[in-house]
Amino acid sequence: MVGECGTAQAALEFLSQSAVDLVLLDFNLPDQRGDEVVRLARDAGYAGNILIVTGAIDSAQSSQVLQQGAAGIFLKHNPVGSLLRAIRVVAAGDVWVDRQVIQYLAVRAPSAGDQSFQNALTEREKQVLAGVLEGLTNLKIAARLGVTEGAVKSTLQQLFEKTKVRTRSQLVRVAVEASIGKPGNA
Predict the structure, then answer these.
(1) Residue scoring higher pLDDT (28 or 115)
(2) At residue 54, what are phi and psi to the nearest 5 degrees?
């Protein structure tokens, strides 16, 4: 099923009446911002995947929309082929976060001197987490790091245990929340 809505209210009504697996949601709708639409959809019981597609978003907005339950953020300036890849990744239940958004979030992340989420991770865990934040598969993370896919899966399990989560999406949310928990990051 494919549907198109021009306002947040129309989208929320559509979601309440239809079985939808994946939503492509513009962050800047005429009547509401995307983070509020995601929150309202989740509050109403929508459990599908939401991919934010936007021309511009800052780090605070990125953090907020991911915390509200979006499965990814895609910036419109990227090629159409990348959008198709992002849709496939999110539809498969994984997370897609545009590289530029990751850079925004990294600027907000706690510094090396802080006792933080990042300091609790090994260097390998940080590398695997970076791959997850980029929306890479385990196989692609393994190729980038020069290790086996099994080693990446093992590291992911360690990350899940340390962060007390069960899925990649939850891991991304924990990482985002840790990046905005630093004083001065609101």
Answers:
(1) 28
(2) -145, 155
The label of the residue with tokens 């979006």 reads: 70
Range of the domain at 132: 112-186
Residue-wise pLDDT tens digits, 59-68: 888 888 888 8
Domain boundary among 55, 79, 108: 108
For residue 182, the cross-strand partners are none
Using an 8 Å Cβ cutoff, are 159 and 129 in contact? Answer: yes
68-71: which pairs have CB atoms within 8 A and are 24 or more residues apart? Answer: 68/35, 68/36, 68/38, 68/39, 68/42, 69/38, 69/39, 69/41, 69/42, 70/25, 70/34, 70/35, 70/38, 71/95, 71/96, 71/169
Letter for the amino acid at 25? L
Query: What is the spatial distance between Cα 70 and Cα 39, in angstroms, rounded to a whole number?
Result: 9
pLDDT digits (tens, 9 = 90+) for 104-163: 777 665 544 444 566 678 888 889 988 888 888 899 999 999 999 989 998 998 888 888
Per-residue model confidence as pLDDT tens digits over 163-183: 888 888 778 878 877 764 444
Count structural domains, the chain: 2
Among candidate residues 108, 126, 155, the one where a domain is terminated: 108
The C-alpha R_g of the chain, in whole angstroms, comes to: 17
